[in-house]
Amino acid sequence: MNQTIRNRIAKLREAMERAGVDYYMAPTADFHNSEYVDVYFKVREYLSGFTGSNGTLVVSRDEAGLWTDGRYFIQAENELEGTGITLFRMLDEGVPTIKEYLKDHMKEGQTLGFDGRVVDTAFGCSLEKILEEKKITFAYGKDLADEVWTDRPSLPSHPVMVLDEAICGKSAGEKLEDVRKAMEKEETDAFLLSKLDDLMWLFNIRGGDVECNPVALSYAYITMKECFFFIQDTEITAELRAHAAKYGITLKDYDNIVPFLQSRTEREKVLYDGHNTSYALYCTLREKGECKDGKNPTELMKAIKNEVELAHMEEVYLKDSAAVCKFIYWLKKNVGKMKITEVTAAQYLDHLRSEIDGYLDLSFPTISGYKENAAMMHYEAVEGSCKELSQEGMLLVDSGGQYMGGTTDVTRTIVLGPVSAEIKEHFTAVAAGMLQLTNARFLYGCTGRNLDILARQPMWDRNIDYKCGTGHGVGYILNVHEGPQGIRWRFTEGQTEAVIEAGMDVTNEPGVYIEGSHGIRTENVMVAQNGVKNGDGQFMYFDTLTYVPIDLDGIEPSLLEPGQLKLLNDYHKAVYEKISPLLNEEEREWLKKETREIS
């Protein structure tokens, strides 16, 4: 029994009773609907004990449930054990959504409480619609966590860095001009921007308010002639003040966003993105006047990397790939000869990255999972309870870095000793799927839904699936997960299905995850490019940014079709050509063997 979590839920129920709240909802988000958040916002984690990056807790006077996606099913089962909280496996057959659960369980006239600053508008409005018949009251100003989490930390605050515009490709002024053109097309007078990575991109700045994500808590309100930037005063540097003055950006206090919106007397039609603007701010806009829900124009602009960004990314990815190659060489050479754990292996790779010119931070905490731990997609190894590596099985390492010139994300599953025939079959299927997607040729207008089968087909042929998407966009010195592009076969409510544009980068990461046995993932990052254009349309293809060998000790060549075998050999030839100049003599000899041609 997990008494700590049970006590926290009990205290929450006491706070609900005092506030007249019948059901309380705690999602995983900050005031900007960010995927990863500072510890201040980890209310759901504090109340439930579940540490995954995605999940929503719903508590009533008698029940408590947690919803999360397939990446975290195994982890959530372990972490929720003994808490009295029921796990709801999202998208599994027969499992209700949060909205369906609330509709079925809440009684007419009851009150649903939540902090409206951490619930996005799209979800809040859909709750309004589905619960309307029951006349449910929304107490969206209730951050009841403050009454339970007595030692809650303060909001994060770190000085903002202004980027050299030489590595951005466009000035903040040029980007603002593009945004205003988009506002004209939307027939709006103002634009409220809440999405943190979009804000950082727009103003060519970076922050430090979220671990591994270089963003600063902020908002922007843009009109055809004015631009207001809301940020904590403690984050403003002299450099930022000068930068803002240069481009006509008025700095305002972060906490002043609601009074500011309430005080606007002009009849402005305000553009906002309901998926990335909080329900609380939307309610303020709705009370103020006319507003229009539409996609942030900055999201697509940011996702299509310009020539300057792509040139820096190519350079950064080669250096990052070389660091991963050095790590694999070190690991294979030393496993069984010295004590190496999941944690110390990750630390060694992190150290190699830190020595690269322009290194800023990790792009996410390194995932290092050995044997059955790798079956948990987002497993986090902890010192003292992690596995020690030996000359058997496999280690899955998913990692990336933030550099002054790019953000990386790469996964390799490394064979450390004997593995079963079944594991080799799964390993080979994953490699085949990754290579098939790499080699895609497709017409402009395709989305990730059209392409996903190329990666997933070898697994589906074996009646296996991985419960996540195949790919996501990656930011430029920004968040490791970026939209609107993505590669997946199913787009659920709220997910954007975007056309793949030239200049968009996307990960390619099929996998196999067998609970209690093993996990395999092979991940590269690619960039979409325009190919031949003819009477049939604009054809497109992918360029690869990641050059790290796929462990041949896990490949069973007889399971590869001739075309797949050629793709593997061609990729390994490119790996050696591009990476060998960045290695020492011993590492080059190892890489030559690891990228040898097989048949």
Architecture of the largest domain in CATH?
Alpha-Beta Complex
Number of helices, where a helix is a run of at least 4 consecutive DSSP H or I residues = 18
Binned strand content: 15-25%
Q: Compute the number of structural domains.
A: 3
Shape assignment? globular
Distance between the termini: 54 Å
CATH domain class name of the largest domain: Alpha Beta
Oligomer: single chain
Domain Peptidase M24: 312-527
Keywords: Hydrolase, Metal-binding
Domain Peptidase M24 C-terminal: 538-598
GO cellular component, one term: cytoplasm
Helices and strands in order:
Layout lengths: L2 H17 L3 E4 L16 H6 L7 E5 L3 E5 L4 H8 L5 E4 L8 H8 L5 E3 L7 H11 L5 E3 L5 H4 L12 E2 L9 H14 L4 E4 L2 H8 L1 E2 L11 E6 L3 E5 L6 H9 L2 E5 L3 H7 L6 E3 L6 H10 L2 E3 L3 H7 L3 H28 L7 H13 L4 E4 L4 E4 L23 E6 L1 E3 L2 E2 L2 E6 L5 H18 L2 E3 L4 H13 L10 E3 L8 E6 L17 E4 L2 E4 L3 E4 L2 E11 L2 E8 L17 H18 L5 H10 L5
Parallel strand pairs: 1-5, 3-4, 5-6, 8-13, 11-12, 13-14
Antiparallel strand pairs: 1-2, 2-3, 7-9, 8-10, 10-11, 15-18, 16-17, 17-20, 18-19, 21-28, 22-23, 24-27, 25-26, 27-28
Fold and architecture overview:
The radius of gyration is 25 Å and the shape is globular. It is 35% helix and 20% strand. The protein starts with a helix and ends in a 5-residue tail after the last helix. The protein folds into three domains: 146 residues, Creatinase/prolidase N-terminal domain (Creatine Amidinohydrolase, Chain A, domain 1); 142 residues, Creatine Amidinohydrolase, Chain A, domain 1; 290 residues, Alpha-Beta Complex (Creatine Amidinohydrolase), CATH 3.90.230.10. Strand 10 and strand 11 form a beta hairpin. Helix 15 runs antiparallel to helix 16 and helix 15 packs across helix 17. Strands 4-3-2-1-5-6 form a six-stranded mixed sheet. It has 18 helices and 28 strands. By secondary structure, it is an alpha+beta fold.
